[in-house]
Amino acid sequence: MHEVLRAAAGSQVFAVTAAPYLLLDRDLRIQAANPAYLRATARHPDELTGAFVFDAFPDNPGDPAADGVRRLGSSLERVLRHGVPHDMGVQRYDIPDPEDPSSFRVKVWCPVNSPLVDGDGRVIGVLHHVEDITTVHDILDHAGSLRRPGAIVRHAMLSAARYKRAASQSSASQSRRDRLWHRLTHDARAGRCVDALCAAAVEELPGIDGAVITLYSGGSVQCLLTASDRWARRVQELQVIIGRVPALQAFATGEPVLLPDLERAGHRWPAYTEAALGLGVAAVFAYPLHTATFAVGALTLYSRGHVSPPVDAEAFADIATVLVLADTDNDVIDRLAAAGDEDDINLAVGFLAATRGITIEAAKAVVNQVAHTSLRRPVDVARDVLARRPGVLT
Which part of the chain is the PAS domain (predicted)? Predict the structure, then answer.
């Protein structure tokens, strides 16, 4: 074994990381598999070490459409030849069933192959990293979110897989979180995952009477994605009227806003507090829906009584983030885009009204007339106005 491969296989990080890794040499023979990889594939080190990777993991003969060997082989060859990582996207690649060697287990993965180089920059092997996304793939498939499995859906799958793995490794929360995932898996077969999550939040979280998922598209433009019931929806719709509310702050800051006694928060959100109290809200807990790189919205929980923040609420927010990202492959992107378009048009109309000394209605008429004459969308004209592009309205 090359010294670089030996060092990688013997490192403490390789041994203890929860991410599944396989070390391959240039001949595509397995030099090492970390414990996480062995768990993910249900294999023993003696079965893998020294084996040709495609002997250890052949295509499922029962699946005539199987292309795992071909696609993985192409990816590995690319990495060895060019010395750059290759992300394979979403890949079905069934694995032999250890309980019945003649059959295979259906598996869906997100594999990434990275070059291992020596001190002279020569590629001497490949680090093969996989994430098992089989469970969440099934959830989203049943929910109708995989018609176009693009980057955003794949990101959701990875987030869900990692969350599920982390939850399973936490003995204190394992049974409760696993039960939630099973609940969502079951309920989502009859509708959307996000709807099932809001219903589960009300049922599972102590003291919570309503749950809402709201998305944002820049500024305060919002899309109320789903609510557990009419009451929660009515409370959340206050955002449209008032604007400055806990959910928007959670989205903007990336930090939860926890108000176990809403009345005491009147000095922070006076208009919202008065209106929400009038609808019977006593406590509000808003959690941001965000990944490491961007925020997408907020999960807001409402209670009719004064209660403490639910212990598992952040776990619900994590799952909500995953499910929201998956749902954006359907109609959410269009709804957010429409909300963003309307916001840009309103800003442009306000700008024209102020700078030209005309009414709002007259400014709208100007934008629509220019759009009609130039055969363009009103939002495109509005964005040109906001960008101060010369000649737009002449």
Answer: 8-74
